[in-house]
Amino acid sequence: MSNVVLEAKGIVKTFPGVLALDTVDFDLREGEVHALCGENGAGKSTLMHILAGVYRQDSGEILINGKHAEISGQRAAQELGIGIVYQERSLVNGLNVAENIFAARQPVGALSMIKWKELYRRSAELLESLDLHIDPTTMVGSLSPAMQQMVEIAKALSLNPKVLILDEPTATITEREVGALFSLIQKLKEKKMAIIYISHRLSEIFRVADRVTVFKDGRKVQTADVKDIDNDWLVNRMVGRDLSFTRIDRDIKEDKVLEVQNFCSGRFRNINFHLNRGEILSFAGLAGAGRTEVMRAIFGADKRTSGKVFVEGKEADTRTTVKAIRQGIGYLPEDRKAQGLFLEMSVEKNIVSSSLKEISEGIMLNDKKGALVCEEYREKLNIVTPSVSQRVVNLSGGNQQKVVFAKWLFVNPKIMIVDEPTRGVDVGAKSEIYGILRRLTEQGTSIIVVSSDLPEVLAISDRIYIMYNGGITGELDGKTADEETIMKYASGITLGQ
Amino acid sequence: MEKQVRAKSAGSSSLGGKILDFITLRRWIIPLVLIVLYFIVYSILFTKSFLSAYNLTSMALEFAIPTSFVIIGMAIMLINGEIDLSVGYACMFGNMLAGYMVINRLPLILCIVVPIIASGLIGLVVGLLVSRVGINSFIATLGSGMVFYGLGLVIYEMCRKFEAGAAIQHLEDWFIVISQGKLVTFPDTGAIQYPVLYSLVLILIFTVLMSKSGFFRKYYYIGMNKETAALSGINVKRMKTVAFTISSALAGASGMLMCARMGSSAVTLGTGLEMKAITACVIGGVSFKGGIGSIGGAILGGLFMVCLSNGLRIAYAPSTVYKLIEGSVLLLAVIMDALISKRKVVG
Fold it and tell me: Are residues B7 and A390, on separate chains, in Cβ contact within 8 Å?
């Protein structure tokens, strides 16, 4: 058995009104990838924050290499050899890779002048040791999200940590890029690095982790070797019940609710597709393929250079979001926090934000009516919140997403475009959201899903379009589609044939 | 997990923490307490001069025009995430234009309406520049302020030619009555004048609109998150244009009323008015971050500002320190805004 690098014993952490961690034991071995999983609010982030020195535990002990360690702050954690890569990006787009890696710790000479040569040399060495072929003078903003994630990891590694914590490192990168990340993790393992890996994507745990610890409601449920368990075991322990979303094969009649002809802009070209009534149509592809851009242009949020939109056979003007909504189109954006929600506002104000006319009498709002409607949606969608006057910033990711859904359900559009509806959402909320989508189509709404999550695309779609580099490269029937075929289209391989 | 991360800073259990949380959610309490304190302290220290009907009614008049008009516009601007630095000059422009029209003996209704519409139109153009072209409102209104001021000076020059050297002054009764007319007269020559009534009506209308109407509610959404607002089907560009128009029109209206109040027009009118309005809004809980605050709070902030200058005057503070104190109050208010904005309160 390899050495235990880090051990936590009986960690307790309370926040006012919440027991976030209840006597949790945890250990991490040299050269292993130890995955933490659990639903939002299960306690894994709290433990991670304690290890990184963001919080202090109320009681319990942390041992590093068998010795008692006081992690009194983030600086102390760094000195003890604990490095962390947070889910939120910490990189500055306008600076280059080297400046980002050594942010605030640039090698300086006389008069605090930065020694640029040394900075670039050390960055290049670090990147090379990780087999990353990135020029240290590249601007971070021009790198792909996956490469940015690598730089983020390089930044954490520049402090020579013994323990590396990765918090949802794949949340914003696509399936194909995940491979590159995993080979980097493999390389770090060979160098005896101990890695804590947090992810909502269970399939990744089986690909990358050696052991896994499941958290639920602030308690450790179980630690197991990954080779001994399967997906159902994990879900079962996380949710406490079996959660499987079974695909239903449906026959959708051709009845074009939405038709898009020759859509072009700087980011995509010659987009032609249609959506049938009551259908779930998915757009698969890699990040940057232009899917979100097409949807935003249809919804009038971005400009198009040419192309026509037909709603129920009639040409429709959707050049502004106001007009698009009037035509019966709704859009649930990809970035929930920045584009979907008014974070500092109440659940109620968020839900009614697109339907102010519906809750008005004359020019005045009837807030009572609004509150009633919100209570109804809270129940229907199982939004977990103490009250509808709670600010959404205090809700978990899955519940926040349900608030955005509630907002659009209230608008009740004929055509609903949902962009990455389950990104950063835990398994429980995920299958609830699939349920919402299916129920909507049963009521006659037609749905376009943009998703980078292939299992999701395969589970919910009646039909699938695949985009690559600004164009549609393939159309598949949801009943017969498989991951391999989608990936082929998504990476443009089929184009040459 | 996010829940717990936030829970750390949310809801303090100590009494001091609870009071702070309470105030964080109701920031208008701060100016209210300050005003009450001011009234108590000055009633005791300066009973005669402070509690006279003359002093109280002139405070009311000073608050009514131009302060309250400009504060309402500024509150709408800040709530929707913009700023209007041109209001002082818009006030001066409205003042000049009204005076020019009065000495030309144009019909009363035109003397009242034209300055408001003209200021509003300039605000509309600035609103279009900000919302359609994407110019920062700080710079745009700094520029439009100069345009207002320049136009005001041009009108002033035209008046000097017309009146052969004389500025706009000693305006006739048919016009000045709109501001100098008295609702109630007190024995010590103090009187509640018409502008106080205009101000109350305006405050009432905008308080109701901002808190209850669907149209004005959109300003909160826009100020909170412009991107989400646009994707929610709110016509952000149009709403912003309307806000700039309202702000400039109200400032022009206050200038026109000031012309009647003083019976003259002055090129120095409105100087520093934008700072006063911003201070009032921020003290009253209208956050620089946008999306937070109310007309009522801003009005309380404005009342506090009037108390402040009144207090200095009654205590015979040298007029040279007024600016120093007003500036310090603005800085303190902004610091308070920044600190309070950081507090996360559940509720």
Answer: no
Interface residue A391 vs chain B (CB under 8 A): yes
User: Look-up: residue for tokens 């003290």?
Assistant: B283
Closest chain B residue to the Cα of A45, Cα to Cα = B1
- Classify domain A256-496 at the CATH superfamily level: P-loop containing nucleotide triphosphate hydrolases (3.40.50.300)
The CATH code for residues A4-239 is: 3.40.50.300
DSSP letter assigned to residue A163: E
* pLDDT tens per residue across span B46-72: 988 899 999 999 999 999 999 999 999
Find the domain containing B117 and state its range.
63-270+288-295
Single out the residue of A223, A153, A191 nearest to residue A30, CA to CA: A191
- Measure in Å the smallest separation between the Cα of B214 and chain A Cα atoms: 6
Q: Is B54 inside a domain boundary?
A: no
> What residue spans define the domains of chain A?
4-239, 256-496
Q: What is the pTM of this model?
A: 0.78
Residues A42 and A253: their CA atoms lie apart, in Å, by 43
Distance from CA of A204 to the nearest CA of B (A): 20
How many CB pairs below 8 Å do chains A and B form together? 123
- pLDDT mean over B7-29: 70
Render pLDDT for A156-197 as a digit per residue (tens, 0 to 9). Answer: 888 889 999 998 888 777 766 788 888 889 988 888 899 999
Q: A418-434 pLDDT, tens per residue?
A: 999 988 787 788 888 99
Phi, psi of A145 (to 5 degrees): -55, -40
Cα–chain center distance at A415 = 24
At A283 the pLDDT is: 96
Give this complex's ipTM. 0.87
Task: Decide if B48 is inside a domain.
Answer: no
